Amino acid sequence: MNAEFDHFAAWLATPLGRYVALSEAAWFERAAVDLFGYKAVQLELPQLDCLRSNRMPWRLQAGEAAGTQLKCTAHELPFDEQSLDLIALPHVLDFSPDPHAVLRECQRVLRPEGRLLITGFNPWSLWGLRRLKPNQDMPWKGNFVALPKLKDWLAELDLQSVNDEHLCYRPPIQRAGWLEKSRFFDQAGDRLWPAGGGVYCLEVVKRVRGMHVIEPQWRTVTVNQNAAVVVEKMRQQASKDRCK
């Protein structure tokens, strides 16, 4: 995955790549600014600082890509169970050989109520159609995991989507002039085709299943009338004995 992320990082320097990077940077800035905790980690793609707006005191960039602070694989993280409050995954699932394993590992290291911030390419968009052409290069040969499928994977791991957005409605053309002229696609697409952006963004929370409180099974006890008479006589006799 090292080489693929390095190639993807190089693609981000192209006109279309810069459009993606700027759009996602704005989303990560909005999504991460009000997330609180102590430890936050970004996996891969250090060229895009996903944690810039976050105020957690311990922030780290990890992964195999060049420039990361901690070398590791996304499906085998060197962190204890339930030790992180926030994990950012910028296109990690797109270029991982086993994206489901990445999610399982994130679920392991996240604290209860910890957050995942995920971005990925949307296969149900003009960008998804672009990847159907033969002999595609980066980034069109990525996984392009569909959002409904991703949400199913998350649900299996008790990871709940709390917010999703789509970005990048402009046609995937590597010409700066055409991209600039098609700016109106972003405003129109968000209103007319909200799920058709080339990139989806997902905020996810780790839920912990609550305990089921077992209430006592109260039952009505019928007092035998004869037994009640005997008890009353014993009470009266005890009272007489105290008066002697």
UniProtKB/TrEMBL annotation:
Family matches, as InterPro entries = Methyltransf_11 (IPR013216), SAM-dependent_MTases_sf (IPR029063)
Which Gene Ontology molecular function entries are recorded, alphabetically?
Answer: methyltransferase activity
* Source species, domain of life: Bacteria
Keyword list (alphabetical) reads: Methyltransferase, Transferase
One GO process term, biological-process aspect: methylation
> Domain named Methyltransferase type: which ranges?
69-118
Q: Which Pfam family is an annotated match for this chain, by its short name? A: Methyltransf_11
Please give the name of this protein. Answer: Class I SAM-dependent methyltransferase
The species this protein was found in: Deefgea tanakiae
Specify the taxonomic lineage: Bacteria, Pseudomonadati, Pseudomonadota, Betaproteobacteria, Neisseriales
